[in-house]
Fold these 2 entries.
Entry 1:
Amino acid sequence: MQKLLWGTAQMGLNLLPAQAAAFDTFTEELLAWNERTNLTAITDPDQVEIRHYLDSLALVPALAALDGVSPATLLGRGVRAIDVGAGAGLPGLALRIIWPKLRLCAMEATGKKVRFIEHMVAQLGLADVQTVHGRAEELALRDEYRGAYDLVLARAVASLPTLVEYLLPLARRGGRVVAYKGSAAHEEALAAEYAIRVLGGQLTRLIPVEVPGLAETRVLVVIDKVSQTPDGYPRGRGLPRKQPLGCEENPDCGEEMEG
């Protein structure tokens, strides 16, 4: 817990005792479940705090600075968010623990991970959290999800030319998409420019973030939703991965990359 308390303080976040206790429970349950089913390759508790929690929470000071407000002001806002490819609940659940007014949907295609997220939501008593078992390329075509979210998040899901086709249809006009990326963020953003434009987005900012205790480069790719996504997107049959928009001349631009 020392890594998390130190790191959140470095980021200007005031972690309340109940929130710190919730992260402790999250770590205990994550590592216990991980012994039975593969949820994460990170099994050292300190590294869970750094690589999962602090990495996820780095979004808050970055977005606050982008909007010209304090982290506390941002965390006081009511925001409807969706975490696409939520995995073991990150970044979504980590953000929800410190963001009481976040109305979160965790979308995940792997059943065992959905069950873990549901377990954690119940264990932590988190209100306004919905779990959805399915793929964004299918669910984003349904009215209840399409164009419904203020904030659409993804961490370590796919390269950006592919990812924006999953994410942008879910954002409302005036909403925002944020992809957690690594050192290849700038190259991926260039490769995704055409797709972002076609899908109704506008690349707003690439924000380098310092995650306390983490040496690797972290960049948040922020895309604003400026117009409606045309009908027919996202395409089905795996096409966003196989044939990313705008990647006809560069077949490598759609390959999966770690965020």
Entry 2:
Amino acid sequence: MNTSLDHLKERLPDHARDLRINLGVLSADGTLTPRQRWGTALASALAARNAEVIRAVAAAAAPHLDEPAAQAARAAASIMAMNNVYYRFLHFTGDDASPYKAMPARLRMQVIGNPGVDHAEFELWCLAASAITGCESCVRSHEQVVTQKGLTTAHVHEAVRIAAIVHALAATLDGVDALGVR
């Protein structure tokens, strides 16, 4: 099975031609370092949950991520899969007087304190995953930490653009496969 990003671009139907062009952001120079960019892409692909996209992004990211960085990107997606559900629930249940907000989360999250890579990078990857899954409080929290750790709004913007593009790729391919559209 061909798992390259170029192959996935070829699979995109004409109604997603803008996405083909937007995928160029993954390999283009920008504000993010290659490690930051590809860590963001890998965490985003995992958060978007399309196996074909995960394989293609992981293959494209491999030359840019050492094993600790790849592990941290995977950990960011994993921990945010849990935290985004929990903290979105707290947000949905209302104001600060909600009884749930006074309860301890009791969720193990040690990887956030010791991700094995630069903390700002890990937080950036958590932010991208949280943007995909739509947890407002996690997005706000991770954006704040990222900027406190020295990254700029331009870094955040580029990471969220990558998350949006990777998520759109996964969603479009899921739709193509479900409809049998080529």
